[in-house]
Write a structure and sequence with these properties.
- The chain is mainly α.
- It has eight helices and no strands.
- Helix 1 runs antiparallel to helix 5, helix 1 runs antiparallel to helix 8 and helix 6 runs parallel beside helix 8.
- The chain is elongated, with a radius of gyration of 19 Å.
C-alpha cells in the first residue's frame, strides 16, 4: 500500500511543482506583477482577470478595456508574458502527459494511450492559438486602439482560451482519476 501511496503522491505532485514553478518563472521574467497591479484599478472585477484565465471567454470590448487599462508602459510585459507563454505548454503538457502515462503504465495499460495524450495535445494547441492571436491583436491595439482589434480573431482567441482551460482541467481530473484507480487497485491487490 505504501508504495502505491508514494507513487500516487509523486504523480500528483510532479506536474503541480513543474507547472507552478514554470508559471512563477514566467511571471518574474515578464513583469506580470506590474500588469496585475495596473489591472487592480479597473472598476469591474471581471476586467481584472487575465485574458488567458477567463473560462467564459471574452469579446473585443473586454479586451479593449483590459489592455486599455495597461497604458503604453505595460504593453511590453504583456507581450513578454505572451511570448514566454508559448513555451509554457511544453512544461505543463509534458508534465501532465508524463504523469498520465506513468499512471497508465502502473495500471497495466488498460486502454489506448491516445485517450490520455489527446486532451493534453488539445490543451497545448488551444494555448498556442490563444497566444499567437493575442500577440497579433496586441500589436494592432497598440497601433490603433480599440479600432485596431479584429472581432473575429478575438472570438477565436476567446474560444481557444475556453478550450484550453476546459481540456486542462479535464486532463488534470483524468490524472486524479487514474491515480485514484491506482490506489484502489493497490489496496484490492494487497488484500
Amino acid at each position: 500500500m505504501n508504495n502505491f501511496v508514494v507513487k500516487a503522491l509523486v504523480l500528483l505532485a510532479l506536474p503541480t511543482v513543474i507547472i507552478v514553478g514554470a508559471d512563477l518563472v514566467i511571471a518574474k521574467l515578464s513583469g506580470r506583477q506590474q500588469v496585475k497591479s495596473r489591472l487592480r484599478n479597473l472598476p469591474a472585477a471581471a476586467d481584472r482577470r487575465m485574458l488567458g484565465m477567463r473560462l467564459c471567454g471574452y469579446d473585443a470590448d473586454e479586451v479593449s478595456r483590459h489592455w486599455g487599462a495597461l497604458a503604453p508602459d505595460t504593453f511590453q510585459p504583456v507581450r513578454t508574458a505572451l511570448e514566454l507563454d508559448l513555451i509554457f505548454p511544453f512544461f505543463y503538457g509534458g508534465a501532465i502527459a508524463a504523469a498520465l502515462l506513468a499512471a497508465w503504465v502502473a495500471l497495466e495499460r488498460p486502454f489506448p494511450p491516445v485517450w490520455l495524450i489527446l486532451p493534453v495535445a488539445i490543451t497545448m494547441v488551444a494555448d498556442w492559438t490563444e497566444n499567437f492571436i493575442q500577440l497579433g491583436q496586441l500589436s494592432r491595439f497598440e497601433a490603433s486602439g480599440e479600432a485596431g482589434l479584429h472581432r473575429g480573431w478575438i472570438q477565436i482567441a476567446s474560444l481557444a482560451t475556453t478550450t484550453k482551460l476546459v481540456f486542462y482541467f479535464g486532463s488534470s481530473l483524468l490524472l486524479v482519476g487514474l491515480v485514484a484507480w491506482m490506489l484502489v487497485r493497490g489496496v484490492t491487490h494487497r488484500s
